Amino acid sequence: MANIKILVGTVYGNALDVAEICADSLRSEGHLVSIARQSQIEDVMDSGVDVFLIVTSTTGQGEIPDTLLMLYCQLKDRLPILPAKYYGVIALGDSSYDNFAEAGCLMDGLFQELKLTRLDEILFIDACETMAPEDEALPWVVKWESLLPNRAS
Ligand SMILES: Cc1cc2nc3c(=O)[nH]c(=O)nc-3n(C[C@H](O)[C@H](O)[C@H](O)COP(=O)(O)O)c2cc1C
Question: Whole-angstrom Cα distance, residue 118 to residue 101?
């Protein structure tokens, strides 16, 4: 069983809806899951949490939503190295914008810099292609869960 924290970046609630569906799925597999709706550095430095799932939309012109921005800035500032932790990214966006799903890419780049290990590729969900992001997120998170370390323990 893993202790998983979902870090949500959202403006209008789509990413939070996806996060809640992922949380239900992960809990049904026996994991301990919490959702950070307004993330701060303490959420990532929490020694009890081994795995993070970043679920974020992109706003403005390729920007990180406010609910994740403070965490991003705090981590950029302090750059704590966290090599024993794992993460995944679900990046919501709209390909009619220039900077498609940039917030997810920025968070991924930062977590790479902090030396966490990403499980699976980033899942990109394009609002131009689907009105139901959960339909893409659910099968992805099932596969992602199967990659978690020590899942049998
Ligand atoms: C004002 C505004 C700006 C946006 N800017 C971007 C952008 O730069 N890149 C992108 O991929 N999507 C962009 N989007 C699309 C959102 O990321 C997408 O609609 C997403 O599903 C919203 O999720 P949320 O409800 O969790 O915020 C923008 C949407 C709005 C309304």
Answer: 17
pLDDT in tens, 70-82: 999 999 999 999 9
Q: Which of 6, 8, 11, 98 to mutate to test the pocket of ligand 1 (most atoms within 8 A of CB)?
A: 11
- Which pLDDT does position 149 carry in this prediction? 87
Question: In angstroms, what is the span from residue 84 Cα to ligand 1's centroid?
Answer: 32
Pocket of ligand 1 (CB under 6 A): 10-15, 57-62, 65, 92-94, 97, 99-102, 127
Question: Which residue range is the domain that position 115 belongs to?
Answer: 3-145
**Residue 116 to residue 110: CA distance in whole angstroms:** 9
Ligand 1 centroid–CA 58 distance in Å is 5
Residue 139, in any domain of the structure: yes
The structure tokens 């920025």 sit at 106
Q: What is the CATH number of the domain that holds 107?
A: 3.40.50.360
Within its chain, how far is the Cα of 35 from the centroid?
Answer: 10
Confirm whether 151 is domain-assigned: no
Whether pTM exceeds 0.70: yes
